[in-house]
Write a structure and sequence with these properties.
247 residues, alpha/beta, 49% helix, binds NADPH dihydro-nicotinamide-adenine-dinucleotide phosphate
Length: 247
């Protein structure tokens, strides 16, 4: 699973699952662009971790939901690194609340970041991949996109939307040897799940056959497989990484 000479962009790579993906792809030899939107220092820490370990990485701040910012960022990556081989659409947010009380802005924010963001980044990155006739795109969906979850109509819609987006894009780009897949994590220990109170966390654990929350590295391993040579014949699929909580 060697990615030497390849250039990867990981959106939301500064924390949690995205951070683990950046570290993993860099350890496989890729030059990794670590994206963040608000916390540049977190992204710089990931960059330092990578370079201290002998890897190569750069930090790039942009909002995945901002079309102009995305265009400029990807143009600068291609100008600087010469190419983009791997895109991981990982940036995501939650704005939970029951449907009856959910604000329209909570719907828009989640759909814009989690779904439109993947569209904007994939659209521009795939131009370079099409020209090269090779590329890998991985979209980070969620178990919630499959099972649904009370209090997350916005998030579930965005994550289910990513699955349809992935299958359609995979069909459009297969002839150019660009694969597009999803990884759907279950409950992974990050700042996103730290927001849950202890009793909710224990309740969720009791519903997971493997009885523990996953780690960012578990998701990173699935991404590593999909972007590597081993994953070359896999496209339009979702790899579930959820301890068995949804089968
Ligand atoms: P975190 O909240 O820990 O990190 C989110 C990351 O996304 C940060 O790097 C943040 O950057 C970045 N980000 C947020 N909004 C934007 C934006 N508009 N543009 C660019 N970057 C942005 O999340 P997790 O690591 O927990 O989740 C990562 C992905 O995995 C998400 O898509 C999430 O939905 C999905 N997922 C997570 C699960 C879990 O249990 N944790 C389960 C299933 C799916 P900054 O720090 O600068 O704000």
């Amino acid at each position: 699973m060697n990615l030497k000479g390849q250039v990867a962009v990981v959106t939301g790579g500064s924390r949690g699952i995205g951070r683990a993906i950046c570290l993993r792809l860099a350890s496989m030899g890729a030059f990794v662009y670590i994206n963040y939107v608000s916390r540049s220092t977190a992204a710089e820490e990931v960059q330092k971790e990578i370079t201290d370990a002998g890897g190569k990485a750069a930090v790039i701040g942009f909002d995945v939901a901002d079309s102009t910012g995305v265009q400029e960022a990807f143009k600068s990556v291609v100008k600087e690194a010469g190419t983009i081989d791997i895109l991981v659409n990982n940036a995501g947010i939650t704005r939970d609340g029951l449907m009856a009380r959910m604000k329209e802005s909570d719907w828009d924010d989640v759909l814009n970041t989690n779904l439109k963001g993947a569209f904007l980044c994939s659209k521009i990155a795939s131009r370079t991949m099409m020209k090269k006739k090779t590329g890998r795109i991985v979209n980070i969906s969620s178990v919630t996109g499959y099972s649904g979850n009370a209090g997350q109509v916005n998030y579930a819609a965005a994550k289910a939307g990513l699955v349809g987006f992935t299958k359609s894009m995979a069909q459009e780009y297969a002839s150019r040897n660009v694969t597009v897949n999803c990884v759907a994590p279950g409950f992974i220990e990050t700042e996103m799940t730290d927001l849950l109170d202890t009793s909710t966390q224990e309740q969720i654990k009791s519903e997971i056959p493997l009885a523990v929350f996953g780690q960012g590295e578990d998701v990173a391993g699935a991404v590593a497989y999909l972007v590597s040579e081993d994953g070359r014949y896999v496209t339009g699929q979702t790899l579930h990484v959820n301890g068995g909580m949804y089968m």
